[in-house]
Amino acid sequence: MTELDHRVRGVDHVAFPTFDPAATVRFYRDVLGFPVVHSICAVGWGPEDHPDFIHFFFDIGNDDRIAFFYYFGTDPSLGGPDGAKGDVYGRFGADVPEYFVRSRHLAIHVENEEDLLEYRRRLDASDWPVEMQIRHETIESIYTHDPNGYFFEITRAMRPVTPQEDLDANLTIDALLDVVAQPEPSFGKLLARKAELIVERAPGWEPVGSEPAR
């Protein structure tokens, strides 16, 4: 596959609906300290049945933002799980496992453990205390739900990700795409296909620390 040049410079914003703008502002601005940096007041936009709304943005660092839409007069019951419209992953029945529900979340990162613990202190002193603090393979994260029920993560790197791990990630994804294209994909088949790809590609790899041929 031809490698495309990388031109993006991060997240401009991610946006979500809210039925409780007051609590949303308390959580992101007053508890976490993310300043409001922009808002759009929209009257008469769209078709005749489109409600007036405000679209407001919080600065989450690095020129990135998280944004919310509040639609005036919209019934909060429209946010239930049984609707027939919208993102299929935004509607969950009672039988959906919790791990699947929680896989949909927003994660933002901080520089170090001190910053992570400061945000833990702020959250624990609020109406939205930290629900979990977990050390993963290369990161440590705290988790809670924001006032809208969105799962929210703040994370910090415990060590840099190495070039070897980037190579491993690409092998894993290539193996995954091959396996899910076949009947009955499984984790065992993923590992087997990844091993095959390593054997196929290893002769072309440069030894660690070697100088490229001139």
Automatic annotation (TrEMBL):
This is VOC family protein. It comes from the Bacteria. SUPFAM superfamilies: Glyoxalase/Bleomycin resistance protein/Dihydroxybiphenyl dioxygenase. Residues 10-157 form the VOC domain. InterPro entries: Glyas_Bleomycin-R_OHBP_Dase (IPR029068), Glyas_Fos-R_dOase_dom (IPR004360), GlyoxalaseI/FosfomycinResist (IPR050383), VOC_core (IPR037523). PROSITE patterns: VOC (PS51819). It holds the Pfam family Glyoxalase. Gene3D superfamilies: 2,3-Dihydroxybiphenyl 1,2-Dioxygenase, domain 1. It comes from Pseudonocardia lutea.
